Amino acid sequence: MPGYVGGSINQAGTKIINGNIANPRRGLPRASGLTLLYDPTTVRIACIMEGAYISSLRTASVSLLATRLCAGRPIECAAIIGAGVLAQRHIELLVQQIPSLVKISLFDLDKQRVANMRTLLTPLLEDSHVVLIEETSAQRAVEGAQLIIPVTTTTTGYIPYAWLQPGAILVNVSLDDPLPDVVLQADKIIVDDWDLIKNDTRRLLGRMYRSGEIIGPDDPHPQGSRARRIDAHLGDVVMRERVGRESDNDIILVNPFGLSIEDIALATYVYQEALRLHLGTPLKR
């Protein structure tokens, strides 16, 4: 995934992620990768860094940003579906950044992964007031939460609108977990980048766009169509050009998308800090 960020960052780079959903059975993370940064003048490689950590941190940071922008009543319970690296990164941020949080409901089809996650997070949880509860089903986890974050590898939806309590925020990180009725009935739908989403032929929102069930935030409404309009880009809400939440009871679906420019921006910051602190390993050309 190549990207270029202009302005004061002025950095081009490429995010490379290699993933295999069978890796957890081998005792390995599902995905790994590299981030390459290029000199903006010569275009030669300036830095090679591990990419999966930055990618997972960026993913969790976007979820947290969207949650803050769409917050209504205080969030006391968050549901995390899936117990991989993305789940770990989300839990770490949520525990540190949402003061009202007291409970995280975690569900994964593989109970051993949940046990491994608990072990990894024990030091963090012991220093907080948040408890981690293993739920027996995705439904139990979702129904009791004000914030729901699926981080799975499924391509088959399973979360119906009926599971979502009034005021819930569903951050659709893994893109295929909600059923279409969530998209059609949510009070607000906020997306990260509509052009990328509508051109994706595999994921839920891209499929619904192709079937004529949804249209973009600024698309003209086809005559006679009853298509559901996407409400806003996340950037519009950040810039206060559109509103994330209008009522405490609004059920909000946030559909982020893996944007390489965000990884490049974050990697550039890490690179600049490494240079300033004289960290890293210089490589001969």
TrEMBL record:
InterPro entries, per the entry: NAD(P)-bd_dom_sf, ODC_Mu_crystall, ODC_N
Gene3D superfamilies the UniProt entry points to: NAD(P)-binding Rossmann-like Domain (3.40.50.720), ornithine cyclodeaminase, domain 1 (3.30.1780.10)
Record protein name field: 2,3-diaminopropionate biosynthesis protein SbnB
Organism: Ktedonobacter robiniae
